[in-house]
Specification:
Largest sheet: 7 strands, mixed
Number of strands: 17
Distance between the termini: 18 Å
């Protein structure tokens, strides 16, 4: 049964219609207004005596909850407070977030969400989303048929095996899905009523979780092989049956599985993997902005990706697409991209090389003239021999970029580009302060987690965060509004260019290659517009966007469809 229906009256006023009793309105976060229920709503739903006499404005409520939020000094407790607020009142949560997004994004997402994931079973308070597990997969039809949200259009799903830089987190991974969907709404105006976080609980290999009496997930080791892929297949088949027009974002799967799941299902259901495609598009946007700052082309750089998991290979693939877009041949583009993993430089003749790395593995013949101390080149030797100018860290190895490594990089380029992108903060390959010191202030830097500004020799450098939140919300919005049949490389490239174009010259002068987080809603709108244009130009837009355009064109079309955190009237149905 639907909790409510969204309607528009004869005067064009949007409202929510429900026949639920008044007390239930205060228990459902999508409907609850707390102290802001109107006089009419208090009468219609018999709320007198249930809510306080004073009828608050939304602004008064924002002031109250911000004061409460600010009283918490610990980031995890601030995260918990915001999640409790979201579980109580969605509109108020997003109105608060909209006012203080730059301050709160590190709290609701990276880096604080990592700790929330680890502690999820200990902190559990309120059910949110859908849990599909090995214990209920046989009931999947009933689960999907009875999802208590009337209009699901966007799902973020994880099996929680590759969470951030902290790996297998079992049931706690659903916190990542909740956080991602919060950013879809805060950054791109996706109506929270359309969103559904999904935990694909296939077990965990963490003994500490399995032995924890408070652990909330299924208590067995992870499914592997055919059993695992059959589980995912059943989930996708169910989605196609009950929610066929839903966008599915795969989140935080482990290396090979991330690519396998994406490649198996991207043609049968609209889907993408943020760790692969979102990370790639975000990093390329930062590289495009850095290239503009230095007056160079991407095709003039030589790239080393230190870390070749899902994120690293996803970045490599998107760099390859960008180089091809600049006119390089397949061979020329590939020759400028090097990847390193825990086994060393990724070469095509490696025994047991994972399939997802093969397309961009370097030919051993390319190393024929290298000066090496052993058969396996070190990070320093790759930088020196390949003449690397762009160093990207996606390894999760704190301190991997040393002074001698950065000195070698600077010898190849007077203005090197260095992105230590590993999350959370403790896993970052180098701190911005050290990188500026070792490069004598010449490096262009972006990080995966937020860092404070750095003062070096009397100049203040702002450190921009290469957060996927600059890409995936706008990408998802554009995909949904266009009804795209598939996520294409051209759409991802369009998203990268849109993000790079929204980095102002002033930001570049400050050393930043990404916009401020406070600009993310406008950035997401521009990303969505370019994704829609790409979908239309490729003939992949299933919705007739062009026939819906009004005065103001595509920008007005997107803006009108971006949800805003305001209270709508709630009315009883008239029979």
């Amino acid at each position: 049964m639907k909790q409510y229906e969204y309607k528009v009256d004869n005067q064009g006023q949007a409202y929510l219609e429900t026949d639920l009793p008044g007390l239930m309105l205060t228990r459902l976060p999508l409907l609850n207004k707390s102290t802001a229920f109107s006089l009419e709503e208090r009468d219609d739903f018999e709320l007198w005596g249930i809510v306080p006499p004073h009828m608050s404005t939304l602004e008064e409520q924002i002031t109250r909850v911000y004061n409460a939020y600010s009283s918490h000094k610990d980031d995890l407790n601030k995260h918990i407070y915001l999640r409790l607020l979201q579980d109580r009142n969605e509109v108020l949560f997003y109105a608060l977030l909209e006012r203080h997004l730059e301050e709160m994004m590190p709290i609701i997402y990276t880096p604080t969400v990592g700790k929330a994931v680890e502690e999820f079973s200990n902190l559990y308070r309120f059910p949110r989303g859908l849990v599909v597990s090995t214990e209920n997969i046989h009931r999947l039809d009933k689960l999907l048929e009875n999802v208590p949200y009337p209009y699901v259009k966007l799902i973020v799903a994880t099996d929680a095996e590759g969470i951030l830089g902290i790996g297998d987190q079992g049931f706690g991974g659903i916190a990542i899905c909740i956080g991602k969907l919060s950013l879809y709404t805060a950054a791109a105006g996706v109506d929270p009523a359309l969103t559904l976080p999904v935990q694909l609980d296939v077990g965990t290999n963490r003994e500490d979780l399995l032995n924890n009496p408070l652990y909330l997930g299924v208590r067995h080791e992870r499914l592997v092989g055919d059993a695992y892929y059959d589980f995912i297949e059943r989930f996708v088949t169910g989605l196609k049956k009950y929610h066929p027009n839903t966008l599915l974002q795969w989140e935080d799967f482990s290396r090979q599985k991330a690519f396998d799941v994406l490649e198996r299902h991207q043609d049968e259901i609209l889907s993408f993997n943020d760790d692969i495609q979102g990370t790639g598009a975000t990093v390329v946007a930062g590289l495009l902005a850095a290239s503009r700052k230095h007056g160079r082309k991407l095709s003039e750089e030589v790239f080393l990706l230190y870390g070749a998991g899902a994120g690293g290979v996803g970045v490599a693939r998107q760099i390859y697409a960008a180089l091809r877009d600049e006119g390089l041949s397949e061979q020329e583009a590939k020759a400028r991209i090097f990847m390193m993993d825990p086994f060393g430089l990724v070469l095509s003749d490696r025994v047991g090389l994972e399939s997802f790395k093969q397309s961009l593995a370097q030919d051993p013949a390319a190393l024929a003239n290298w000066q090496l101390n052993s058969t396996s080149p070190s990070l320093l030797e790759v930088i020196t021999n390949a003449k690397v100018t762009v160093l990207l860290g996606l390894s999760g190895q704190a301190g991997a970029f040393s002074e001698v490594v950065i000195t070698a990089l600077c010898a190849n380029s007077p203005k090197p580009i260095i992105f230590p992108l590993s999350n959370p903060t403790a896993n970052c390959e180098a701190t911005p302060q050290d990188l500026l010191l070792w490069s004598k202030g010449q490096a262009t830097i972006a990080t995966g987690s937020p860092f404070a500004d750095v003062n070096y020799e009397g100049k203040r450098y702002s450190i921009s965060q290469g957060n996927n939140a600059f890409i995936f919300p706008g990408l998802g919005l554009g995909l949904m509004l266009s009804g795209a049949s598939k996520v294409s490389p051209e759409m991802l490239t369009a998203a990268s260019k849109a993000l790079a174009d929204n980095v102002s010259e002033g930001r570049l002068d400050q050393g930043c290659v990404f916009p401020r987080v406070s600009q993310i809603r406008e950035v997401s709108k521009q990303v969505a517009i370019k994704v829609i244009e790409a979908a239309i130009s490729q003939g992949m837009a299933r919705l007739q966007v062009e026939s819906s355009l009004e005065e103001g064109g595509l920008e007005a079309f997107v803006e009108k469809r971006m949800w805003k955190p305001v209270y709508l009237p709630i009315r009883r149905p008239k029979f």
